[in-house]
Specification:
Mean pLDDT: 81
Number of helices: 8
Radius of gyration: 18 Å
Largest sheet: 8 strands, mixed
Helix content: 25-40%
Order of helices and strands: HEEHHHEEEHEHEEHH
Number of strands: 8
Structural class: alpha+beta
Strand order of the largest sheet: 1-2-3-4-5-6-8-7
Protein backbone atom coordinates (compact mmCIF):
# COMPACT_ATOMS: atom_id res chain seq x y z
CA UNK A 1 0.00 0.00 0.00
CA UNK A 2 1.47 3.31 -1.03
CA UNK A 3 1.12 7.01 -0.40
CA UNK A 4 2.22 9.41 -3.11
CA UNK A 5 3.78 11.84 -0.64
CA UNK A 6 6.07 9.32 1.03
CA UNK A 7 7.11 6.69 -1.51
CA UNK A 8 10.90 6.83 -1.56
CA UNK A 9 12.94 3.69 -0.97
CA UNK A 10 15.39 4.00 1.91
CA UNK A 11 18.96 2.78 1.67
CA UNK A 12 21.89 4.38 3.40
CA UNK A 13 25.47 3.56 4.07
CA UNK A 14 26.60 2.63 7.56
CA UNK A 15 28.61 5.81 7.97
CA UNK A 16 26.38 8.30 6.19
CA UNK A 17 25.46 11.28 8.34
CA UNK A 18 21.76 11.74 9.03
CA UNK A 19 20.05 15.04 9.83
CA UNK A 20 18.92 15.68 13.39
CA UNK A 21 15.25 16.14 14.15
CA UNK A 22 13.95 19.40 15.53
CA UNK A 23 13.77 19.18 19.29
CA UNK A 24 10.14 20.34 19.43
CA UNK A 25 9.02 17.27 17.48
CA UNK A 26 10.14 14.89 20.22
CA UNK A 27 8.33 16.91 22.87
CA UNK A 28 5.10 16.02 21.05
CA UNK A 29 5.89 12.29 20.93
CA UNK A 30 2.53 10.46 21.35
CA UNK A 31 3.39 7.85 23.97
CA UNK A 32 -0.30 6.90 24.22
CA UNK A 33 0.04 5.06 20.88
CA UNK A 34 2.67 2.63 22.21
CA UNK A 35 1.29 -0.90 22.39
CA UNK A 36 2.79 -4.34 23.06
CA UNK A 37 1.50 -7.71 21.89
CA UNK A 38 2.81 -11.17 22.75
CA UNK A 39 3.02 -13.95 20.18
CA UNK A 40 2.15 -17.54 20.90
CA UNK A 41 5.85 -18.42 20.95
CA UNK A 42 6.51 -15.81 23.66
CA UNK A 43 8.10 -13.14 21.47
CA UNK A 44 6.92 -9.59 22.03
CA UNK A 45 6.03 -7.09 19.34
CA UNK A 46 6.11 -3.38 20.10
CA UNK A 47 4.12 -0.83 18.11
CA UNK A 48 5.33 2.72 18.65
CA UNK A 49 5.57 6.05 16.83
CA UNK A 50 8.72 6.37 14.74
CA UNK A 51 11.78 8.20 16.07
CA UNK A 52 14.43 10.12 14.11
CA UNK A 53 17.07 7.55 15.11
CA UNK A 54 15.01 4.81 13.40
CA UNK A 55 16.37 5.78 9.97
CA UNK A 56 18.75 2.85 9.61
CA UNK A 57 16.28 0.39 11.15
CA UNK A 58 13.71 1.52 8.61
CA UNK A 59 16.26 1.25 5.83
CA UNK A 60 16.99 -2.34 6.85
CA UNK A 61 13.27 -3.18 6.79
CA UNK A 62 12.69 -1.74 3.34
CA UNK A 63 15.88 -3.11 1.80
CA UNK A 64 15.00 -6.57 3.15
CA UNK A 65 11.59 -6.66 1.46
CA UNK A 66 10.96 -8.89 -1.51
CA UNK A 67 10.98 -7.12 -4.87
CA UNK A 68 7.20 -7.44 -5.04
CA UNK A 69 6.55 -5.96 -1.60
CA UNK A 70 9.03 -3.14 -2.20
CA UNK A 71 7.41 -2.24 -5.50
CA UNK A 72 3.92 -2.30 -4.00
CA UNK A 73 4.90 0.12 -1.22
CA UNK A 74 7.44 2.24 -3.13
CA UNK A 75 6.47 2.21 -6.84
CA UNK A 76 8.71 5.21 -7.61
CA UNK A 77 11.82 3.63 -6.13
CA UNK A 78 15.01 5.61 -5.88
CA UNK A 79 18.03 4.03 -4.28
CA UNK A 80 20.05 4.97 -2.34
CA UNK A 81 18.10 7.64 -0.48
CA UNK A 82 19.60 10.93 0.57
CA UNK A 83 19.76 12.04 4.22
CA UNK A 84 16.89 14.43 3.47
CA UNK A 85 14.71 11.58 2.21
CA UNK A 86 15.47 9.54 5.32
CA UNK A 87 14.52 12.52 7.46
CA UNK A 88 11.21 12.82 5.61
CA UNK A 89 10.34 9.27 6.71
CA UNK A 90 11.53 9.43 10.32
CA UNK A 91 11.31 13.09 11.40
CA UNK A 92 7.56 13.63 11.57
CA UNK A 93 5.39 16.08 13.51
CA UNK A 94 3.20 13.26 14.98
CA UNK A 95 -0.02 15.03 14.04
CA UNK A 96 -0.21 16.07 10.39
CA UNK A 97 2.39 13.43 9.53
CA UNK A 98 2.43 10.34 11.74
CA UNK A 99 4.41 7.13 11.27
CA UNK A 100 4.34 4.06 13.48
CA UNK A 101 6.64 1.05 13.39
CA UNK A 102 6.34 -2.48 14.76
CA UNK A 103 9.51 -4.03 16.13
CA UNK A 104 10.75 -7.30 17.59
CA UNK A 105 13.90 -8.07 19.57
CA UNK A 106 16.26 -10.52 17.84
CA UNK A 107 19.60 -11.45 19.39
CA UNK A 108 19.34 -8.46 21.70
CA UNK A 109 18.75 -6.00 18.87
CA UNK A 110 15.61 -4.25 17.72
CA UNK A 111 14.37 -5.07 14.22
CA UNK A 112 11.47 -3.43 12.44
CA UNK A 113 8.91 -5.73 10.85
CA UNK A 114 6.31 -3.16 9.76
CA UNK A 115 5.82 0.54 9.07
CA UNK A 116 2.61 2.50 8.61
CA UNK A 117 1.94 6.21 8.26
CA UNK A 118 -0.50 8.88 7.27
CA UNK A 119 -0.06 12.39 5.91
CA UNK A 120 -2.97 14.81 6.24
CA UNK A 121 -3.43 16.86 3.08
CA UNK A 122 -4.67 20.42 2.69
CA UNK A 123 -8.28 19.20 2.56
CA UNK A 124 -7.97 17.55 5.97
CA UNK A 125 -7.88 13.96 4.71
CA UNK A 126 -5.22 11.44 5.75
CA UNK A 127 -3.39 9.55 3.01
CA UNK A 128 -2.22 6.24 4.45
CA UNK A 129 0.58 3.83 3.56
CA UNK A 130 1.57 0.48 5.04
CA UNK A 131 4.20 -2.19 4.57
CA UNK A 132 4.82 -5.41 6.51
CA UNK A 133 7.97 -7.51 6.19
CA UNK A 134 7.27 -10.58 4.04
CA UNK A 135 7.70 -13.28 6.75
CA UNK A 136 5.35 -11.33 9.05
CA UNK A 137 2.53 -10.81 6.59
CA UNK A 138 -0.91 -12.29 7.34
CA UNK A 139 -0.15 -12.24 11.05
CA UNK A 140 -2.52 -9.38 11.93
CA UNK A 141 0.19 -6.72 12.18
CA UNK A 142 -1.33 -4.69 9.35
CA UNK A 143 -4.72 -4.60 11.06
CA UNK A 144 -3.10 -3.59 14.33
CA UNK A 145 -1.20 -0.73 12.68
CA UNK A 146 -4.22 0.44 10.67
CA UNK A 147 -6.44 0.71 13.74
CA UNK A 148 -3.69 2.70 15.47
CA UNK A 149 -3.49 5.12 12.54
CA UNK A 150 -7.27 5.51 12.45
CA UNK A 151 -7.42 6.37 16.15
CA UNK A 152 -4.66 8.97 15.76
CA UNK A 153 -6.17 10.40 12.55
CA UNK A 154 -9.53 10.79 14.24
CA UNK A 155 -7.91 12.63 17.14
CA UNK A 156 -6.10 14.88 14.61
CA UNK A 157 -9.42 15.76 12.96
CA UNK A 158 -8.93 13.93 9.66
CA UNK A 159 -12.16 13.48 7.72
CA UNK A 160 -11.12 10.43 5.69
CA UNK A 161 -8.41 7.79 5.55
CA UNK A 162 -7.41 7.30 1.93
CA UNK A 163 -4.83 5.38 -0.05
CA UNK A 164 -3.99 3.62 -3.28
CA UNK A 165 -3.39 -0.12 -3.65
CA UNK A 166 -2.18 -1.96 -6.73
CA UNK A 167 -4.96 -4.18 -8.04
CA UNK A 168 -2.65 -7.20 -7.92
CA UNK A 169 -1.96 -6.72 -4.21
CA UNK A 170 -4.76 -9.06 -3.13
CA UNK A 171 -3.50 -9.44 0.45
CA UNK A 172 -3.57 -5.67 1.04
CA UNK A 173 -7.00 -5.33 -0.55
CA UNK A 174 -8.29 -8.07 1.74
CA UNK A 175 -6.88 -6.18 4.72
CA UNK A 176 -8.55 -2.97 3.58
CA UNK A 177 -11.92 -4.70 3.27
CA UNK A 178 -11.56 -6.24 6.73
CA UNK A 179 -10.90 -2.74 8.03
CA UNK A 180 -14.10 -1.53 6.35
CA UNK A 181 -12.41 0.48 3.60
CA UNK A 182 -14.42 1.13 0.46
CA UNK A 183 -12.37 -0.16 -2.51
CA UNK A 184 -12.93 1.44 -5.93
CA UNK A 185 -11.02 0.70 -9.13
CA UNK A 186 -9.59 3.81 -10.78
CA UNK A 187 -11.65 4.90 -13.80
CA UNK A 188 -8.63 5.48 -16.03
CA UNK A 189 -6.12 2.96 -14.62
CA UNK A 190 -7.55 -0.46 -13.70
CA UNK A 191 -4.26 -1.38 -12.01
CA UNK A 192 -4.99 1.12 -9.22
CA UNK A 193 -7.62 0.67 -6.50
CA UNK A 194 -8.61 3.66 -4.35
CA UNK A 195 -9.42 2.79 -0.74
CA UNK A 196 -11.10 5.05 1.79
CA UNK A 197 -13.00 5.05 5.05
CA UNK A 198 -13.84 7.48 7.81
CA UNK A 199 -11.63 7.10 10.91
CA UNK A 200 -14.64 7.16 13.20
CA UNK A 201 -16.31 4.35 11.28
CA UNK A 202 -13.19 2.21 11.54
CA UNK A 203 -12.83 2.95 15.24
CA UNK A 204 -16.49 2.11 15.85
CA UNK A 205 -16.04 -1.21 14.06
CA UNK A 206 -13.06 -1.99 16.24
CA UNK A 207 -14.95 -1.25 19.46
CA UNK A 208 -17.91 -3.36 18.35
CA UNK A 209 -15.73 -6.23 17.19
CA UNK A 210 -16.73 -8.88 14.66
CA UNK A 211 -19.93 -10.84 15.20
CA UNK A 212 -19.38 -14.16 16.96
CA UNK A 213 -22.46 -16.38 16.79
CA UNK A 214 -20.82 -18.98 19.06
CA UNK A 215 -19.08 -16.44 21.29
CA UNK A 216 -20.91 -17.67 24.38
CA UNK A 217 -19.51 -21.17 23.77
CA UNK A 218 -15.98 -19.81 23.42
CA UNK A 219 -16.33 -17.83 26.63
CA UNK A 220 -17.68 -20.87 28.43
CA UNK A 221 -14.71 -22.94 27.29
CA UNK A 222 -12.21 -20.12 27.92
CA UNK A 223 -11.22 -19.97 24.26
CA UNK A 224 -11.50 -16.20 24.24
CA UNK A 225 -8.37 -15.93 26.39
CA UNK A 226 -6.18 -16.51 23.31
CA UNK A 227 -7.50 -13.43 21.52
CA UNK A 228 -4.71 -11.23 22.89
CA UNK A 229 -2.21 -12.90 20.57
CA UNK A 230 -4.26 -12.24 17.44
CA UNK A 231 -4.11 -8.85 15.78
Amino acid sequence: MKARAVNTIVATGAHEALPLADAHLITHYPTSLIDIRTLRDGRRLTLRPVLPQDARLLAALINGLSDTSRQQRFPNARQPATPAELAALTCVDYRRHLAVVVSVQEDGRERLVAEARYLIDDDGHAEVALVVDDPWQRSGIGTWAMFTLSRAADAAGAGWLRGEVLAGNTAMLALMRRCRFCCTVDRTDPDIVHVETRPRALNAHRRAGPARPLGWVQRLLGAGQTAATQY
